[in-house]
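#lab-general

N.A. 3:47 PM
ok so I finally got the sequence cleaned up, no stray characters, all 268 residues accounted for. can someone with queue access submit it? mine expired

B.Y. 3:52 PM
send it over

N.A. 3:53 PM
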Amino acid sequence: MIDRRSFILASVAAMLPLGASAARRPRQPTPKTFDYGPAKLDIYAPEGASGMPVVFFVHGGTWQFGKRIQVNAKPAFLVANGFCFVSIDYRLLPEANVATQAGDVEKAYAYIRANIARHGGDPNRIVGMGHSAGCHLIALTGMRGGLPGVAALILDDTRAYDLAALAKNGGMVRAYARVFSDPSQWAALSPASYVDGRKHPPTFIAYSRASGRSEVSKAFAERLRATGTKVTLFDGSAYTHMSINRDFGEDGDALTTAALAFLKSAVG
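B.Y. 4:20 PM
back already:
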């Protein structure tokens, strides 16, 4: 049975315009854009910020497409929850190969580590995050030590953790076959090649229901755990490859809730 108060609240809600709920969402902050050398990056931070942890984001796009502005609700959500947010461009195929792209990510990270304090961020509490091709690049640079001092990693949905294993299992198809056409480069460009032998920063690994994502993500998580690395594995089988990135920061999103808890645990 609905009591009188609940009935009144429901009636008022029914009379609100459809867009009213969106008005309660955090407002998208305006970024400041900087040239870090090979490309540009955007820094989102509230005015007067000081010592805030930082999320350093690398976009996806099969290593060929994508822009730093394609961040959806991430900046608004993360700034509202006490983080600075950085999104970078990097040179794309065919202008640059994947090795060059990884170098761009490392240069952008070095720029942020050297300069983020002037924008309210803490250079000792930076979390690397990437989706799809950006997930591969963050995993690759993070595992090989190219992001010195990185506090944690959020890896969102790639199949490119171990390229030789991917080829062996029939997964080197379509974009992967085009981008990683030279088998002699597979080991150097595989994040898994750099896992063994040392403990890595805490790592959050999410996978969607897209083909092959769960298997390679679980295998990579187990390999990391064997080094003593703290790993959080998120079953994102309710998501598509696109929605697992697009929905981050939206109200009620399960991945956002899990990732935020991970972030707070990793950077305090």
